[in-house]
Amino acid sequence: MTGANSFSVSGYGPEQARWTRLFARDSLARRLDWPILLSALALSMIGAALVYSATRNRTEINKGDPYYFLLRHLLNTGIGVALMIATVWLGHRALRNAVPVLYGVSVLGVLLVLTPLGATINGSRNWIVVGGLSLQPSEFVKVTIILGMAMLLAARVDAGDKMYPDHRTVLQSLGLAAVPIMIVLLMPDLGTVLVLLTIVLGVLLASGASNRWVFGLLTTGVVGCVAIWQLHILDEYQINRFAAFANPSLDPAGVGYNTNQARIAIGSGGLTGAGLFHGSQTTGQFVPEQQTDFVFTVAGEELGFAGAGLIIVLLGVVLWRACRIARETTDLYGTIVAAGIVAWFAFQSFENIGMTLGIMPVTGLPLPFVSYGGSAMFAVWGAVGLLQSIRVQRPMSA
Asked: Could you tell me the maximum CA-CA distance found in the chain, to the nearest angstrom?
């Protein structure tokens, strides 16, 4: 007996055969990094609950619909997951050929922010608003800088011509990154600039470039910060944020209001929190921008140390698995891309959580996967797609 009937005779039916093929050693399901995927999904779902708690009573922004931000957060997550699937399907190596186009589009996007299409939100002109849709192009610059620098730095190494990137290649990659960074600085969006600089540093470290470039970049960064401060390039609201960070008791009803209220909210949560949707600071709307920049305060107040700690653990799992992908891939291009994503996620998570705890200045960076925001959600899930693609396309022996 042959064909499908043979399975029934042996006790191994067609449905079982399909599942066996699905989870075979060389199948896509087995090659995917499930800890990253499940952790990112868990963070996005926790974020949905926190966003709903922060906005359900905010009639001035939710248009009278308590589920407005919740549904949009879930929609953004769904679109992000779709982008991840598309990225895995295309493959990071195929996207390597499209890097010049992606880079050009992202640079054009941040340039458009400086035109009449740009909109200023919370003192920073980093949005494009067309009709009822808003887009933050600087979020996608994070991805394209990683891909662009990786393409340049790994080209001759992966081809076998060089052991490490030479000085000319490193200089070209830094020039590629400098263009969008300077445009973002003009917006001004200092928080995103810090993320981009961290990405550049992480990419250089992973590429095997000479340590002189790393030390030179760090020195240039310090000199640049001093120059920006001395030349009064920063806007007044940015200077006030640094002043409030340096002196938390400074003007608690003014420039220090955000950080003071954030610490009060997190401190009141205790070990297990006041309970989801029962936080007095959140319900009373004392913390500004609680669905975006300060979403971690909702976790601290309503879920307590246990819930806030769970978010940190899940972010740690994402970073741990991403580091493992970077270490195990067999091509330098994949290593650099994964390392750039690690640098991005690590710094942005530390900065966002740190500013709510008062150990970092307020910069307006969202918490990856958790904060409300379409552009940020699309970018981080696209990055997860790149990580999955690197893992999926590596040889099984790696």
From this structure: 85
Give me the DSSP letters along 191-255.
HHHHHHHHHHHHHHHHHT--HHHHHHHHHHHHHHHHHHHHTT-S-HHHHHHHHHHH-TTS-TTTT
What are φ and ψ of residue 127, in 5° steps?
-125, 150
> H/E/C letters for each residue in 113-166?
HCCCCEEEECCEEEEEEECCEEECHHHHHHHHHHHHHHHHHHHHHHCCCCCCCC
List 120's β-bridge partners, or say none.
125
- Dist CA 17 CA 387 (whole Å): 29
The 8 Å CB, 24+ separation contacts for 219-226 are 221/197
**pTM for the predicted model, two decimal places:** 0.88
Q: Measured between alpha carbons, how far is 103 from 249 in angstroms, rounded to an integer?
A: 43
Give the pLDDT confidence of 202-238 residue by residue, as tens digits.
999 999 888 888 888 888 878 877 776 666 666 666 6
Q: Output DSSP code: residue 23.
A: T
Residues 229-270 pLDDT 10s: 666 666 666 666 666 665 666 555 555 677 788 888 898 889
User: What is the Cα–Cα distance from 126 to 119, expressed in whole angstroms?
Assistant: 7
- Token pair listed for 92: 């990071």
- Written as six digits, the tokens of 235 are 């806007």
- Letter string b/e over residues 286-323, b meaning 16 or more CB atoms within 10 A of that residue's CB: bbebbbbbbbbbbbbbbbbeebbeebeebbebbbebbe
Report the distance separating Cα 250 and Cα 10, nearest Å.
Answer: 77
Q: What does each C-alpha distance from 203 to 17, 304, 392, 398 come to in angstroms?
A: 43, 36, 21, 22
Identify the H or E element spanning 262. helix 257-267
b/e map 355-391, b = 16+ CB within 10 Å: bbbbebbbbbbbbbbbbbbbbbbbbbbbbbbbbbbbb
